[in-house]
Amino acid sequence: MTKNIYIFIAMFAFLGANAQEGLPTYSDYLTDNLYLIHPSMAGASNCTKVRLTGRQQWFGQEDAPALMTASFNTRFDEYKPSAGGIILFNDKNGYHSQTGAYLTYAHHIMLGRNTIDLNQVSFGLSVGIIQSRLDQSEYDLSYNAGNNPSLLPDPSALTNDNISSTYYNVDLGASYHLLDFYAHLTIKNLMGTGRKLYNVDKESSNLQRFLISMGYVFSSINSDWSFEPSMLFQHISQTKETQFDINIKTYKKMDFGKVWGGLSYRRSLDGAEYYSTSGSAEGQKLQYITPFIGVNYNKYMFGYTYSHQTGQVKLVEGGFHQITLGINLNCRAEKYDCNCPGIN
Length: 344
What we know:
Layout (H helix, E strand, L loop, with lengths): L2 H14 L31 E10 L8 E10 L6 E12 L2 E15 L8 E17 L26 E17 L2 E12 L16 E8 L8 E12 L5 E13 L2 E19 L5 E17 L2 E10 L10 E10 L15
Antiparallel strand pairs: 1-2, 1-14, 2-3, 3-4, 4-5, 5-6, 6-7, 7-8, 8-9, 9-10, 10-11, 11-12, 12-13, 13-14
């Protein structure tokens, strides 16, 4: 395999790890965890929600990306519009790692004339404190760069030690629910100090990521089945990268709660060229297929997500595994006459 392919794989691994810029955006929002990416969903549900996630990429690969999150969100008062939440996370990707916390305030405004038909707009603001770390103690400077010594790091920039940078950022979001329809707009890293992790003159503080998602829940009268097609569009301001998700999720009501599952397809609109072993120039765009399943059993929930990268060039054949555990507390009666699992 040529050096070009290794560089190509490294770039795709970088894209898949979301550049270590705050909390990464994966597919965990599909497992009853919308608050993890949309601050406006804090306290939107009729229950207080506690969620734990664990994600491991590329089993068997040393220093593969891994993510753990813990989140809590609730309405401050059943009859008041204010809500809040907190997210804690630890993210590791090779020599890089980051630990952070977000505090969220959300406000929910009813637009309808009654409290039965759902017509609600929500706003959310999250402030995050993040510490990024870079472990330089295991760097191998013996790599042969051949005719391109610029591939080697500058030895004067290495301290052979762990370095860290602490910074803050702000996420801002809005959501709209109308009966069975919903839409979300979130700007992650809208403003902040930016990290200063590398020994360079300027490290960009523009970490903005724009997220737009929407969906609709279909169900027949008196049916225990419902179907939810949805999409997520995201754009990274600094690198001009654009990705989209197309999702389908199915719910089945049970005596103990509900079971659900679905499929997600993520594709990047930005590709890269590489030279194959035959020497010909090829192109490939980042693509993931993600099946997911879960169950809500009384007040508990469990979800499993598996993401598989497609294409000719991959680091390993194994995919990305994620487990979500949750508990719903202080649940109120479902007051809205709609198929709206994010609310009821």
